[in-house]
């Protein structure tokens, strides 16, 4: 059952990928330009630290590590799940109904509906940034790299959950797409600098309400030597996978409710 | 055997009341007044296996909403629908296997890939065994005459070819019921006829039940055994096409072939329609025929003369006029 779904997912996504390959020039330019754009964002961290060498205890390479971590998870989100941005238009133009007349879980159909090549540009930029930073951060082991992989996937899951929950508003309101721009800004801004530079209200918001800080900020501490600066509690730096799991469950619940509302299955 | 049983189907939609006057936008943001409207309003009908039913009515009459309830996309607000004994929304996945859906305006094919790739993917989506997939694909390729464009990207297909592809895609998994939402919209005569004769063929040979919505009277005339006419969510007529013609036709045409008729100089009975040199005069009552022929032969040089039954199109026009559209 799961095996069939994995095979089907790969078949559908490879078809979507080949659709993009039908426009090879777009494909190449798209991926390359996003890679450079991503790298330039990462370089901003380097430029800033040329003037201010240490930001709240974080050195150049630690900052680059943090922002590259987000760039990588963001790339995964964009590549495989960016359609959560477009749920609104899928529903409004009726394409979504197609998912409901197939013998598949609608979430599966939705997830397998699109692949966005620009995500690979972000992923590539993120990976370059990560490697560049890791060279300057001591004590890497295979175990740590395996954990980094888990963190990256969990981070993508957190971003997906937040985006999907906002996307699901459309099931009730047929609008709500504008909300995601707020979230996009939060994600882009608050995954780049240590949370501790912001004031307390923001720290609480980004940790406990919109847990953006679990994507790159808290887990970064895990890989650094000095862990004394973790706000609230040092436990937080281990919690990213748990937060991801929790959010994904909540999101699936919201999705199910939203789908019922869309189909009109009572309130 | 009744394959579809719809009993008192109601689908309600809520719309926000639109505030008027100044600050509309602000008011709309904070208004919670909702209005409900029955888009489908106590609709009941049954469809026998192997029927072709035309589901017609003006835009916004509730056609697609009904189809969506039959397809399991929407849940009825009240009332029930059973398709092959299943309530579609209760058992959506199983139901999906027994229906095929074509939304005429929206393709389910992969736009940038060769047509064949979409078929292969659908074979996987519906989990078809290899031999069955191949058998069905070969059959549809043959009768829909698709072999010349199977490996062409869908975006390069003509509308007619694409529609053939879409219909084949909806039938690959051998559904018992096919829902078609405007299958011939925008097609030229040749393409239309190809699709109509194909639908007739699979209906006859595979006993596939077909429900189609259309604004194309040609489809109804050529395909449908039965017509359901809906407006404002309610069924206004449900019956065979013959009964519809008898009930809402109630008139015939006296068709006169008169090549040298001139509109400007005409002072005889009103000409309802003109096709080339043929003039159509409407007769409400057969007793009029003789007197009208006499009147016309005085005025015109008549080459030929026939009495014709109205086309479905004329009947539908009558129906629309009666409901005030």
In brief:
The complex is a heterodimer of chains A (267) and B (325). Chain A is mainly α. Helix content of chain A is 70%, strand content 0%.
What can you see in these coordinates?
The complex is a heterodimer of chains A (267) and B (325). With 267 residues, chain A is an all-alpha fold. Chain A is built from 13 helices and no strands. In chain A, helix 8 (142-167) packs parallel to helix 13 (240-263). In chain B, the strands form three sheets. Chain B has a six-stranded mixed sheet with strand order 5-6-7-3-8-9, sandwiched between helices. In chain B, helix 9 crosses helix 11 (312-322). The longest helix of chain B is centred in the middle third of the chain and has 18 residues, at 189-206. Chain B starts with a strand and ends with a helix. The relative contact order of chain B is 0.13. At the A-B interface, helix 1 and helix 5 of A face strand 1, helix 3, strand 5 and helix 4 of B. Chain B: Residues 23-257 form the ABC transporter domain. Chain B: Keywords: ATP-binding, Nucleotide-binding, Transport. Chain B: It comes from Paenibacillus forsythiae.
Which structural class should the secondary elements of chain B be placed in?
Answer: alpha/beta
The major β-sheet of chain B equals: 6 strands, mixed
Task: Provide the CATH topology of the largest domain in chain B.
Answer: Rossmann fold
Low-confidence stretches of chain A: none
The total beta strand count of chain A reads 0
CATH top level assignment of the largest domain in chain B = Alpha Beta
Integer average pLDDT of chain A: 89
* Helix proportion of chain A: over 70%
Helix run count of chain B? 11
Q: Which range best describes the helical content of chain B: under 10%, 10-25%, 25-40%, 40-55%, 55-70% or over 70%?
A: 25-40%
> What's the arrangement of strands in the largest beta sheet of chain B?
5-6-7-3-8-9
The largest pleated sheet of chain A is described as: none
Calculate Rg of chain A over CA atoms: 19 Å
Structural class of chain A: mainly alpha
CATH superfamily of the largest domain in chain B: P-loop containing nucleotide triphosphate hydrolases
Tell me the CATH architecture of the largest domain in chain B: 3-Layer(aba) Sandwich
Could you tell me the strand content of chain A as a percent range? under 5%
């Amino acid at each position: 059952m799961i095996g069939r779904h994995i095979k089907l997912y790969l078949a559908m996504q490879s078809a979507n990928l080949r659709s993009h390959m039908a426009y090879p020039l777009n494909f190449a330019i798209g991926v390359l330009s996003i890679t450079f754009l991503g790298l330039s964002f990462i370089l901003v961290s380097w430029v800033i630290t040329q003037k201010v060498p240490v930001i709240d205890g974080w050195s150049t390479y630690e900052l680059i590590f943090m922002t590259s971590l987000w760039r990588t998870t963001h790339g995964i989100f964009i590549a495989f799940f960016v359609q959560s941005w477009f749920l609104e238009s899928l529903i409004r133009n009726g394409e979504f109904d197609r998912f409901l007349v197939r013998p598949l879980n609608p979430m599966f159909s939705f997830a397998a509906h699109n692949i966005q090549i620009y995500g690979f540009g972000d992923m590539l930029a993120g990976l370059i940034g990560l490697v560049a930073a890791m060279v300057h951060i001591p004590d890497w082991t295979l175990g740590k790299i395996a954990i980094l992989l888990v963190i990256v996937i969990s981070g993508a899951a957190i971003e997906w959950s937040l985006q999907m929950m906002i996307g699901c508003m459309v099931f009730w309101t047929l609008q709500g797409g504008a909300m995601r721009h707020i979230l996009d800004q939060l994600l882009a801004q608050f995954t780049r600098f240590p949370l501790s530079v912001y004031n307390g209200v923001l720290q609480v918001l980004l940790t406990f309400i919109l847990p953006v800080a679990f994507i790159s900020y808290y887990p970064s501490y895990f890989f650094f030597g000095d862990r004394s600066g973790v706000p609230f509690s040092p436990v937080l730096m281990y919690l990213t996978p748990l937060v991801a799991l929790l959010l994904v469950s909540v999101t699936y619940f919201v999705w199910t409710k939203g789908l019922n509302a869309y189909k009109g299955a009572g309130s | 055997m009744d394959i579809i049983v719809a009993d008192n189907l109601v689908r309600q939609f809520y719309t926000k009341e639109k505030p008027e006057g100044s600050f509309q936008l602000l008011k709309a943001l904070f208004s919670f007044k909702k209005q409900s409207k029955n888009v489908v309003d106590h609709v009941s009908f049954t469809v026998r296996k192997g029927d072709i039913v035309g589901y017609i009515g003006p835009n916004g009459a509730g056609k697609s909403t009904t189809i969506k309830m039959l397809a399991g996309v929407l849940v009825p607000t009240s009332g029930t629908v059973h398709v092959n004994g299943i309530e579609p929304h209760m058992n959506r996945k199983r139901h999906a296997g027994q229906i095929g859906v074509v939304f005429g305006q929206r393709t389910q094919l992969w736009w940038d890939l060769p047509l064949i790739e979409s078929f292969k993917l659908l074979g996987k989506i519906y989990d078809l065994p290899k031999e069955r997939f191949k058998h069905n694909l070969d059959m549809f390729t043959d009768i829909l005459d698709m072999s010349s464009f199977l490996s062409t990207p869908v975006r390069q297909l003509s509308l007619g070819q694409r529609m053939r592809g879409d219909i084949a895609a909806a039938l690959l998994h051998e559904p018992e019921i096919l829902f078609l939402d405007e299958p011939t919209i925008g097609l030229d005569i040749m393409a239309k006829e190809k699709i109509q004769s194909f639908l007739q063929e699979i209906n006859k040979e595979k006993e596939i039940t077909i429900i189609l919505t259309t604004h194309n009277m040609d489809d109804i005339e050529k395909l449908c055994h039965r017509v359901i006419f809906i407006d404002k969510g309610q069924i206004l007529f449900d019956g065979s096409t013959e009964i519809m013609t008898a009930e809402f036709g109630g008139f015939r045409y006296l068709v006169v072939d008169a090549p040298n008729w001139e509109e400007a100089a005409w002072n005889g009975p009103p000409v309802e329609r003109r096709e080339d040199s043929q003039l159509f005069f409407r007769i409400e009552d057969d007793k009029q025929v003789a007197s009208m022929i006499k009147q016309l032969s005085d005025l015109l040089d008549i080459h030929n003369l026939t009495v014709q039954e109205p086309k479905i199109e004329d009947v539908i026009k009558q129906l629309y006029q009666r409901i005030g559209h």
